[in-house]
Amino acid sequence: VDQIPAAEDFGNAQQLAHGRMLFDRNCMVCHGPLVVSSGTVLDLRWAQSPGSKATFADVVLDGQYASAGMASFANVLTPDDVESVRAYIINRANEDAKAAAAAAPPP
Predict the structure, then answer these.
(1) Burial 24-35, CB ≥16 within 10 A → b, else e
(2) pLDDT category of residue 105 using cuts at 50, 70 and 90
(3) Among 35, 50, 56, 59, which is least packed by CB within 10 angstroms?
(4) Is the pTM of this model over 0.85?
């Protein structure tokens, strides 16, 4: 998997903090702390679905992958909540991509 974020950072500090709280409460058990998967399920930092507001909502709210075990969270999260979670995931992806680039040996 290419370690390339699906989108540029977005959201303010309050939205990111809210997204992290919601992620920790609802997503971390499967997708890992700090959005770092153990390898059992998709590592959301490098997934493409968080790159699109509509696609991410299809997955999280509409249950697009319910048959694969990713249930809908429509009874728990609002569309604004889901957008905050998406902002947090994208932020984590960009943080880790920048850290990896900085740690890479020069060419």
Answers:
(1) eebbeeebbeeb
(2) confident
(3) 59
(4) yes
